[in-house]
C-alpha cells in the first residue's frame, strides 16, 4: 500500500491559476516534475524563486555558505507579532549569539535530563486516549505541547498556565492563516505584513502569558529555587563570547518559538507515524513487541531500533516542515543560471525525501531501508527533516527521542487501524491531514 501523497499537475497553467492553487495548498500546487528535477526556476512579476533539489545546492546553501543565504526580513516581519526577534527569524551576529546561549541546553549530553518530561507526557497521552475512531491530530498536538511544557518549565499541560498558553496558541493559529508556508513564500509580496487585529491580539495574549512564566522563573532563579529544566538552563547560560545573558524580554521571544517550533512539528510527525503504523500491521506488531522491553533511560530508548526506523521513515514521507526558504544576499550562479540578489531559494524536504533520483521506491513506506547500506547515500544527501548546517533544528535530538517513546508507548497500549479514508497531506504551518488523520484505537489487552 502506497501512503497518500497529494495530487499534483504537470501543466504550467496561468500564473493566476497557480497563485490560487498555491494559496489553497502548496504541496498539490507544485508540479510533479519537482520530484525528479535538480533545480527549477519560477519567475513572475511577484516572485523569482529557485527550487533547489540538487544535493550540492542544498549543501552550498545550508552548510558551505549559509551566511550568503540568510532568512528574509519578510519572514521576520511576518512572524514578528508572535515571535519578535527569536532565533528562528534572526540572521548574522544576532542569530549566532542566540544560538551560543541556546545550544548548550539542548546538547546531546543533556538529553537524558528531558527523559522524565518525555516519558511523563507519553504515559499521560496513553491514559488520555479513548478507544474508537478518532482524528489523532489534536491528541498528538496535546501530547507534543505537554512535552514542551514539561521540558521547558517542569509543568504538565494540565497546569492552568500551560493550558492557557496552549489554548491561546490554537486561537492564534485559527486567526493567523498567514503563518503557513504558502504565505511565508513571498506570494504575494505584501501578504505577511498584513496582521489582522485578531492576530495581533492572540499573539499578544500568548506573549503576556509567556512573560508571566519567564518572570516567575527569573524570580525563582534569583532566590535559588528554580528547577533544572530547559528554561533555567537557557536563562542562566551566558554567551561564552560576551558573557551576556538573555533579558526577560528576549527570553519571551525564544520561549514563543520553542513552543511553536517544538509542538507543531512533533505533533505532525507523531500523527503521521501513528497513521503509518495503523496502515502497516506488520510494522505495528514489531514496534509493539519492541516496546515491551522499553526502560525509561537513554539505553532503553536507543535499543528501539525498529521504532526509530519507523519514525525516521515517517519523517521522510511526511516531513513536518515541508519547505524552507532562504534569500540570495548577492548575485549567485546556481547550476549555470543567474539568481539575482533577493532571489528566493526553496529547500524542500518534501521533494528531496521523495526524489526519484535520490531514493529507491521513494513513495513506499519501508522502515527496513534505514538498515540497508545503500540508504546511506540517500540519508546523507537527501534527508533533512531537521534542516542541516549551522541552522539545524536545536530540538532534533529531543524530537527523535520523543517520537520514538510516544510511538512505543502507544503501540504497546493500543491496536491501531486506519480510518475509512486515507488522509490527504496538505502544507499548513506543518504537514497536516486536510480533513484530519483518522485512526481507530482498540486496547491491546482486549480483542481488537
Ligand atoms: C519532529 C520535530 C521537529 C522537526 C521536524 C523540526 C524541524 C525543524 C526545521 C526543518 C528547522 C529549520 C527551519 C528553517 O531553517 O527554516 C527547525 C528549526 C528550529 N527548531 Fe525544530 N523541529 C522539530 C522539533 C523541535 C523542537 C522539539 C524544538 C524545541 C524544543 C525545536 C526548535 C527549533 C528552533 C528554535 C529552530 C530555529 C533554529 C534556527 O533558526 O537557528 N524544534 N526545526
From TrEMBL:
| InterPro entries on file | Cyt_P450, Cyt_P450_CS, Cyt_P450_E_grp-I, Cyt_P450_sf, Cytochrome_P450_monoxygenase
Q: Give the similarity note.
A: Belongs to the cytochrome P450 family.
Q: Which UniProt keywords apply?
A: Heme, Iron, Metal-binding, Monooxygenase, Oxidoreductase
Q: Which cofactor does it need?
A: heme
Entry superkingdom: Bacteria
Q: PANTHER family this protein is in?
A: CYTOCHROME P450, CYTOCHROME P450 12A4, MITOCHONDRIAL-RELATED
Q: Name one Pfam family in it.
A: p450
Keyword presence, Iron: yes
Q: What is this protein called?
A: Cytochrome P450
Q: Which species is listed as the source?
A: Paracoccus acridae
Amino acid at each position: 500500500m502506497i501512503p497518500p501523497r497529494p495530487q499534483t499537475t504537470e501543466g504550467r497553467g496561468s500564473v493566476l491559476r497557480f497563485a490560487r492553487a498555491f494559496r489553497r495548498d502548496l504541496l498539490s500546487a507544485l508540479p510533479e516534475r519537482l520530484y525528479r528535477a535538480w533545480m527549477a526556476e519560477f519567475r513572475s512579476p511577484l516572485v523569482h524563486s529557485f527550487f533547489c533539489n540538487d544535493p550540492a545546492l542544498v549543501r552550498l546553501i545550508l552548510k558551505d555558505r549559509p551566511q550568503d543565504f540568510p532568512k528574509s526580513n519578510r519572514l521576520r516581519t511576518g512572524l514578528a507579532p508572535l515571535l519578535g526577534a527569536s532565533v528562528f527569524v534572526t540572521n548574522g551576529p544576532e542569530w549566532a549569539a542566540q544560538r551560543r546561549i541556546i545550544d548548550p541546553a539542548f546538547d546531546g549530553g543533556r538529553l537524558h535530563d528531558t527523559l522524565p518530561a518525555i516519558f511523563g507526557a507519553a504515559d499521560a497521552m496513553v491514559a488520555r486516549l479513548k478507544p474508537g475512531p478518532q482524528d489523532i491530530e489534536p491528541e498528538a498536538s496535546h501530547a507534543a505541547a505537554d512535552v514542551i511544557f514539561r521540558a521547558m518549565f517542569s509543568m504538565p499541560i494540565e497546569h492552568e498556565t500551560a493550558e492557557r498558553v496552549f489554548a491561546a496558541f490554537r486561537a492564534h493559529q485559527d486567526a493567523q492563516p498567514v503563518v503557513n508556508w504558502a504565505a511565508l513564500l513571498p506570494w504575494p509580496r505584501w501578504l505577511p505584513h498584513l496582521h489582522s487585529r485578531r492576530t495581533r491580539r492572540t499573539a499578544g495574549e500568548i506573549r503576556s502569558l509567556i512573560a508571566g512564566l519567564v518572570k516567575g522563573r527569573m524570580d525563582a532563579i534569583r532566590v535559588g529555587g528554580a528547577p533544572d529544566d530547559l528554561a533555567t538552563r537557557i536563562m542562566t547560560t551566558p554567551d561564552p563570547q560576551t558573557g551576556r545573558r538573555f533579558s526577560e524580554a528576549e527570553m519571551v521571544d525564544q520561549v514563543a518559538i520553542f513552543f511553536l517550533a517544538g509542538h507543531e512539528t512533533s505533533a505532525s510527525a507523531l500523527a503521521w507515524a501513528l497513521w503509518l503504523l495503523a496502515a502497516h500491521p506488520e510494522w505495528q506488531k514489531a514496534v509493539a513487541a519492541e516496546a515491551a522491553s522499553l526502560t525509561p533511560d537513554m539505553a532503553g530508548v536507543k535499543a528501539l531500533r525498529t521504532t526509530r526506523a519507523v519514525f525516521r521513515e515517517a519523517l521522510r514521507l511526511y516531513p513536518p516542515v515541508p519547505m524552507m526558504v532562504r534569500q540570495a544576499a548577492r548575485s549567485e550562479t546556481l547550476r549555470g543560471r543567474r539568481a539575482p540578489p533577493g532571489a528566493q531559494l526553496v529547500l524542500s524536504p518534501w521533494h528531496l525525501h521523495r526524489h526519484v533520483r535520490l531514493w529507491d521506491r521513494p513513495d513506499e513506506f519501508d522502515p527496513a531501508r534505514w538498515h540497508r547500506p545503500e540508504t546511506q547515500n540517500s540519508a546523507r544527501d537527501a534527508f533533512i527533516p531537521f534542516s542541516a548546517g549551522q541552522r539545524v533544528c536545536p530540538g532534533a535530538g529531543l524530537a527523535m527521542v520523543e517520537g520514538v517513546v510516544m510511538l512505543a508507548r502507544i503501540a504497546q497500549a493500543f491496536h491501531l487501524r486506519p480510518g475509512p479514508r486515507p488522509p490527504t497531506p496538505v502544507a499548513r504551518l506543518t504537514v497536516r491531514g486536510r480533513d484530519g488523520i483518522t485512526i481507530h484505537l482498540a486496547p491491546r489487552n482486549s480483542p481488537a
